[in-house]
Amino acid sequence: MPELTEILFFAAVLAVSGVLSGLLAGMFGIGGGAILVPIFFHVFGLLGVPEEVRMQLSLGTSLAIIVPTSIRSFMAHRARGAVDMELLKGWVIAVPLGTLIAAFVAARASSVTLRLIFAVIALILAGRMIFNRASWRLGDELPKNPARFLVGTSFGILSGLMGVGGGVVNNTFMTLYGRSIHQAVATSSGMGVLISLPGLVGYVIGGWGAPGLPPLSTGYVNWIAVVLIIPITLIMAPYGARAAHAMSRQALERAFGVFLVCVSIQFFVGVFS
């Protein structure tokens, strides 16, 4: 068992991550998971959680925290009239379906595989955001069904395997079809709701009875971390949404990209060191 001073230090680190994840949820529509997952992975490791279940636990716990954060962020963006509700309604089945598939896969994949998936996707998307050009377009209108349904399902799978709210993929998707980064961010906050709720259920079921889980865990969700971080993220998300609408498109995209690069490097170093 770790010493009391260690536990307090871990709690302080988690609290800081809660502040950052709440701001990121509002600013980038990503639900904060992209920062919570790597922090959880290291904190759970220091607490003695076996590597075999550590990444899955980090992903599931992140998605559980994203539930209220995404709802709060979505409400803040919707109040500004920036959310594409038509797109979200078209994904109400596709995105949750993909997320449940991801939870099933994650329960059977290795920790190293999940970390590499996280890092590779984050790095690809970072390149798109940092080096974005206005000429980079796939079209002027978002795809129609069945292509749109398949896109939503794939986004659910990728986000579920990364423990994020979907902004990392949806922001890129919408801007490639001529939508503003501000509308993409706002819509991604709603997508986070469609991902986090079924993701929570999927990771609880997928990790039910798994060995080596820390106390107060239900499947791959640790409720100590959830209870500690959720209040902080709920408070900070509206401030992030306000900051997003005050920034230029270029600044918002580059900030998002640099953040993803840092996260990706951190995971690559962890895998190959």
TrEMBL record:
How does the protein associate with the membrane?
Multi-pass membrane protein
Q: Name one GO cellular component term.
A: plasma membrane
Could you tell me which InterPro entries the record lists for this protein? TM_pro_TauE-like (IPR002781)
UniProt keywords, alphabetically = Cell membrane, Membrane, Transmembrane, Transmembrane helix
Q: According to its UniProt record, where is this protein located?
A: Cell membrane; Membrane
Give TM segment ranges.
7-24, 30-50, 57-75, 87-107, 114-131, 151-173, 185-208, 220-239, 251-272
This protein is called what? Answer: Probable membrane transporter protein
